[in-house]
Amino acid sequence: MTLKEYNKKRNFKKTNEPEGKKKTAGKKIYVIQKHSASHLHYDLRLEFNGTLKSWAIPKIPPKTKGVKRLAVETENHPIDYAKFHGIIPEGNYGAGKVEIWDNGTYELIEKDDKKIVVIIHGKKLSGEYVLVKTHYGSKPEKSWLFFRTK
Ligand code: MN
Fold first, then answer.
1. Which of 3, 9, 47, 114 is buried most deeply by CB count within 10 Å?
2. What integer pLDDT is reported at residue 23 of this predicted model?
3. Which pLDDT score is estimated for 24?
4. CA 6 – ligand 1 centroid, Å
5. 34-68 pLDDT, tens digit each
6. pTM score
7. Ligand 1 centroid – CA 93 distance (Å)
8. Distance (Å) from CA 42 to ligand 1 centroid
9. Whose CA is closest to 85, among 47, 44, 33, 38?
């Protein structure tokens, strides 16, 4: 999903979240935001082509091998969103607290429509991680599995 959809869902006069604009520079951004919305989840975001490709992970992301997490693809977010933390006010899309749970950079190893392999250099997560398409969950067309391989 696109930045246009991201912008459409939000009123930037009422939320402190950044407005969606494309841009890119330097190392590729990796961030996970803990989002205490109606359901607590962890938003994994990886920089691709000037935006942050995003997935919502309903449970705490795995630091070690052997744990696979469902990761539901959400709309791309603007690069500036990687620094966002704070409160999205009641009545707005995603209302609730956003905290930066982990951040750093990543290296892309492999990517196609069904599989993304990255090396994450974060503080909590560090090592090789994979995202693979799955049909599990309530939104099968947007469902991926996220896990550590090395
Ligand atoms: Mn979220």
1. 47
2. 53
3. 47
4. 12
5. 999 999 999 999 999 999 999 999 999 999 999 99
6. 0.84
7. 9
8. 7
9. 33
